[in-house]
Amino acid sequence: MTAFTHHLNRLPVMFCLKLLPFCIAGLVNPAVAEEMTTHGSHVHGEAALTFVLDGNEAELALVTAAGNILGFEHKAATPEEQQQQKTQLEMLQSGRWFSADTAANCTVAGQEVRIEQDDHGHADLYANIQLLCQAPLKLQNLQFGLFELASGLTTIKAQYLVDGVAGAQELSATSPALKLR
Ligand SMILES: [Zn+2]
């Protein structure tokens, strides 16, 4: 994927914070918005991520095939699977699957993680993290340690909107840094 940048009016940003994945995808590329709202068509190995920073508030939204994170997609059946699921959901809730530049002084202000099972043996995993950053102008990069914590994950297709400037980048274990500025 080639990187691209649009300059956007400030107006839609707060609106975007509420409707994050759809809004940012829609602003950048209507085809991507379509893909992200279509259920049951997830790609094993891939995750979609959106990141929005507005003032000192930020939100990350990750959507991925549950198997990429859990190692399985059926309902956890054995004690080992239940433990594995619990460990991985707690990891996502903690926000330690990514790191922001220390100088930006960001802390996790809220989170929501959930699994949605379909009728065909597949499941999607959603992780939303809200951040509060004391020095948001110093936020240059987000590093994704998630590749080391989720063995089934090979690619994160990331889109961002930082103070009205949007862009996109594809991340992998060898290229885990999302450059925001
Ligand atoms: Zn699946």
Explain what this protein looks like in three dimensions.
It contains six helices and ten strands; from the N terminus they run E-H-H-H-E-E-H-H-E-E-E-E-H-E-E-E. The N terminus is likely disordered. Helices cover 27% and strands 36% of the residues. It has one domain. Helix 1 packs across helix 2 and helix 2 runs antiparallel to helix 3. The structure holds zinc ion. InterPro entries: ZrgA-like (IPR021253). Keywords: Signal. This is DUF2796 domain-containing protein. Pfam families: ZrgA.
Percent of sequence in beta strands: 35-45%
Separation of termini? 18 Å
State the helical fraction: 25-40%
**Which ligands appear in the coordinates?**
zinc ion
What shape does the CA trace take? globular
Major beta sheet, specifics? 7 strands, mixed
Number of helices, counting only DSSP H or I runs of 4 residues or more: 6
Name the structural class: alpha+beta
Domain count: the total is 1
How large, in whole angstroms, is the Cα Rg? Answer: 16 Å
* Main sheet strand line-up: 1-9-8-2-3-6-5
**What's the number of extended β-strand segments?**
10
InterPro entries: ZrgA-like
Signal peptide: 1-33
Protein name: DUF2796 domain-containing protein
Organism: Rheinheimera riviphila
